[in-house]
Amino acid sequence: MTAPVTDLVARATKGERRAVARLVSMVENASPQLREVMAALTPHAGEAAIVGVTGAPGVGKSTTTSALVSAFRARGQQVGVLAVDPTSPFTGGALLGDRVRMQDHATDSGVFIRSMATRGRLGGLAWATPQAVRVLDAAGCDVVLVETVGVGQSEVEVAALADTTLVLLAPGMGDGVQAAKAGILEVGDVFVVNKADRDGAEQVVHDLRSVVRMTERAPGAWRQPVLSTVAARGDGVDEVVEALDQHREWAAGSGDTHRRRIRRVRDEIEAIAMADLRRTFADLHGDDRLDELAAAVLAGEYDPYAAADTVTASMR
Amino acid sequence: MTAPVTDLVARATKGERRAVARLVSMVENASPQLREVMAALTPHAGEAAIVGVTGAPGVGKSTTTSALVSAFRARGQQVGVLAVDPTSPFTGGALLGDRVRMQDHATDSGVFIRSMATRGRLGGLAWATPQAVRVLDAAGCDVVLVETVGVGQSEVEVAALADTTLVLLAPGMGDGVQAAKAGILEVGDVFVVNKADRDGAEQVVHDLRSVVRMTERAPGAWRQPVLSTVAARGDGVDEVVEALDQHREWAAGSGDTHRRRIRRVRDEIEAIAMADLRRTFADLHGDDRLDELAAAVLAGEYDPYAAADTVTASMR
Predict the structure, then answer these.
(1) In the prediction, which pLDDT does B97 show?
(2) Are B152 and B183 contacting, i.e. CB atoms less than 8 angstroms apart?
(3) What's an example of a GO molecular-function annotation for this chain (chains A, B) (predicted)?
């Protein structure tokens, strides 16, 4: 391991902010030194509770995340926040959203806040987010909150990333049946209806509770609580923290946390292997060869399986 | 090629409904015969306009899709509809949503409608959806509408899948700034504010237009139209069809369609290569070996890059 990386990792595991920020940037930029960084960090990781916070735009994710940070800090816990931003596949520019709400915590040395663009890549979350989480985990965070915009596929990814997934809803954003259609019921461990002072909030809570109640589950399985908050005022946030604690305890005892973590690392390993395959292929045949193969498939001269064979053959 | 597959493909390319349905099922179930199917279908595909329809739950995607189907049918076009359903990573059960709205078209021989579960897999869209689109394309559809729930990562995937992406919004689902935060501005080619008879619709249209106007773009680049509809009554649907036509013409002329299609096939090739890698590894080392590697990483005994090396080494 090169001296600068050893030094950086040593400083990050002591919680030094600049070193932590530097390592997250290395993840974001897919630094060639990541291999060394991850090898050095892995033994230090595994203690943090990873909590995913997700929901459609406008439900109050940043406000809720900020309120949760305050609650964890009040218990003396170190907190990491990773806001995963959707990014254009065309320009590469991240829309950082209202990080401004996090500014309350910007000067708190017990809080690491980081936005990260996933570059609009398919599977963008697959290795970058778990690696960034690993950095915050190894830096001594007791809790890492991973905030993602999204309803749908990205939530499925968050469910795979987190030990506990908190799904936020708000009145006026579609009812419980719409929520069920979006597939959120099966990825959420804790449901929170935010903006509970607005019209229709009680109905959303009621609908969700009905759907949760009607869902068949095995004996001993987790039953998702449906809570309500007005996160901007801090109302109901303590109950959310309590529900997160309860889920954590249940998931650790049932083996659920271990299973999710295995799945997360497995996805990361596969994503790294795929990146390696892509790089080996480009080294052998040039950066444009995959585009040429794709063009041949589009022209009907080749089929995608034959093209994939060419890619995997480059590893032999 | 085995006789049944040859026969099935021949029948599907003549537009025979049962053969088309059978091929889509083979895609959905990852049939081992897909390789033959895709090799036989590829020369027949490439004519259809692929239109992605996406937006948050509750904006009226099914209603809008159904209205678009009627409009395309009125022009005498063959239409395929592929509704990609979010699926639990835990139970594998798809929530088929309100396919009932599509029943108007169920007996029309010029319309193929199919729901497909993506099985909650990371990258679930990567090969299954393009392959199902290829089936509908080769079956003679002039237009294939790919309807997905989602705001966020899944939209990025839809943008990669489609030649033209229609993003649906509705009043009360967050304003234009929220939309910008969700990253939809850069994936949408045509924006439609549905439920335009509701309060706040004009404001959403106004906000979106402002954001579109302020977005910097290269000379000759596409400027996204922002339209409004009441899809349930068919209001504004003809204007949407016209905007889709205009985008198609622009995208064909600018090379944008070709670039997107290259990207789509490239992603499909890589997804197939990855599936091959996974299978080869499991054949060599057993189905559980990847989980064992992941467990070693979790225990801090191994790093994810070393684990990935073990996977890629299985190809050598």
Answers:
(1) 38
(2) yes
(3) GTP binding
